Amino acid sequence: MTLLLVTVAGALGCVVRFLAEYLVRRHDPTLRPWATVAANVVGTFIAGISLYSLTTFADRQLQSVILTGFCGGLTTFSSAFAIPAVLQREHHWRSSLALILSTPLLCAGAFVVGTTVAH
Length: 119
Description:
By secondary structure, the protein is an all-alpha fold. The protein is built from five helices and no strands.
């Protein structure tokens, strides 16, 4: 049953990310990379909450569904570094550097805030 729930949660995370990027791209295509950053930040925030608020054995299954499923589908490490590479190749150096520096810092900060909220 857990495998099914992780699969469904992962699919839901993928759809949420796709819709966020679609809406941003439709409004302003140059902001699409920031939708990826936002998805990664939201995912790590949710992971922080989940990791520190779900502590019982029964909670561990729900934690797997949230972390591996939803957050795994929502976040992406590959796009977080592929998009800056594309921007760099197109000579958008500042945007590329901003994405490379901001993604890990914002995600780490969101995780810490998520763990704090969970306490």
